[in-house]
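Please, structure for the following, as tokens.
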Amino acid sequence: MRFSFISLLFSLLTVIGLSQENILDDPEIQEKVEKCLSSTYEFNFAEAHSLLNEIEKALPSHPAPSFLKALIIYWENLPLPSKGIHSDEFLKSMKESVARANLLLKEDPDDIEGVFFDLHARAFIAMYWADNGKPGRVIKDIDNLYRRTMQGINLKEKFNEFYFSSGLYSYYIEAYVELHPVYKPIAALFREGNKEEGIIELQYAIDNTTYIKVEAILFMSLLQLNYEKNLEEALKYAAILYNNYPKNTYYIGHYLMILLYQNKFETASVILERISGKEDDFSQMIFMVMEGFILENNRKKIHEAKRMYREGIRAAEKFGPFADIYQAIAYAGLSRIAKINNDQRAFRKNRRKSESLSDYEFILSYQKPV
């Protein structure tokens, strides 16, 4: 997906964090929350829903169950569209988590659980709108997101899970402006960051957190891919996600993409064969695009590659901005094929289309192995 300035800078895509004040003082609840999270990432939604029911009974007024419910809805219906019953349920549950968090903050403005859930529920809503190409829907919430992010930075020594949002902010507030200097005057209005410190804090989150670890791994892979231009490091973290959650369609696609751009076709082909059996439209779209990439690298199957790329582009359209990166990969592949065929018009057209869909430089700079 293509991240807007607002979503990068302020939404701080996260999944879940629970405070040491109450939940982590109860080993039984802690274990259930961890299993619920793991089941959700593993796409074992029946178990996730069952565990959520137990957590809701134990914590009927806490912000955590509402957040977990929204999280399950998000992953179970990935990619979650901007309209529909599941989207309404997702937004309702996230907003309920915010409301419950604010009840805690009314009693204590620095309540760790209140700050954490208020930040992360708002951030996840912002990410959801960014996924659907509507970042403007969160402009009114930027002040709240920024304020809670700053509170989290100040509380990170008390609660390690805040190292994720702290590291993410420190890195992106600097890296994004370097890539898009036009936003420098806007960034000057906010707290300064530090890319090196941000990477250190993200790695600390990977090594020392429980609930936010998975998102820390994902964003470490993403920043290595898009900003550090280090595909080997990006692949390392993507492999961790895939090996731990091999049924997660988003992680499969992310891992496959990097494998292919590293020319690791043998490993990619094995994973692609596994995903070919998944019947949902999103998995099939990923299969079409990635299969096209492999076929393109077989000079005897260029026509088949073109067909798969085009089918993948058509299949991706229903998912909107969430699938932009897959369309970008397919259009870039079509541009390379057009160049081989000395079709300069098609080459330029497809290359421009790819460029308009993704900021990832590696997509357009890819050179097939000799």
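The chain is about 70% helix and 0% strand. The two ends are 30 Å apart (CA to CA).
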